[in-house]
Amino acid sequence: MNPKDDHYYIDQVKNGKLSAFSYLVEKYRDMVYGLSLKMLKNTEDAEELAQDTFVKAFQSIGTYRGSSKFSTWLYRIAYNGAITQLRKRKVELYSLDEQRLSDQDELDIANRLTEIDQEALAGSLKKAMATLPADDQVLITLFYYEDQRVEDIAQITGLSESNVKVKIHRARKKMYSFLKENLEEAVFNVL
C-alpha cells in the first residue's frame, strides 16, 4: 500500500499504531478548521470544533468502512458538530428569497464580471458570501473552493443531491443580487 494513501494510515491506526493518526490530523486540519470557521464564524468555537472532530474521528475510526473518501467522512463529522453547536445557540437560518434570473443571465454576468478588477471582485465576493446563511456558505465553499462533488456534499450534509444543487443555485443567485447592488456601477458599465 502506498504510504501516502489515507487508507494506509487508517489501517495503521486500526491495528494499534495510534501515532499514525497524526498524519491524518496534519493533512486535514486546515480543511476541518476552515469548514468549522465558515459555519460558526468564531475562531475559538472553530478551533474547539476542529479538535472535537478529530477526537470523534479517532474514537470512531473503527466504523470507517471506506465506502466514501476519508475527507468526506471527516467533513460529515465536522458538519454535524457545527450544526449541533448552531442549534445550541438557537441561531435561525433564514430561507432564501426566490430570484428571477435565468441560468443564461448568470453565465453572461459571470463572463462580463471577469473584466472587473479581480482584487475588488474578490473582496466583494467575500462580502456576498457573508450575506448567506451559514449552511449555504458551507455549500458554496465545499463546491467552489474545496472542489467537492455534489455527491460528496450530499453525503457530508445529509441533503439529497438535488437539494444540494438547488441550494447552491439559490445561493449563487443571492450572491448575484448582492453583487449587483454593491457593484452596480462596475456591473452596469460591463453590461
From TrEMBL:
Residues 124-175 form the RNA polymerase sigma factor 70 region 4 type domain. PROSITE patterns: SIGMA70_ECF. One of its GO terms (biological process) is DNA-templated transcription initiation. One of its GO terms (molecular function) is sigma factor activity. It comes from the Bacteria. Transmembrane segments: none annotated. Keywords: DNA-binding, Sigma factor, Transcription, Transcription regulation. Residues 24-90 form the RNA polymerase sigma-70 region domain. Signal peptide: none annotated. Belongs to the sigma-70 factor family. ECF subfamily. This is RNA polymerase sigma factor. It comes from Sunxiuqinia dokdonensis.
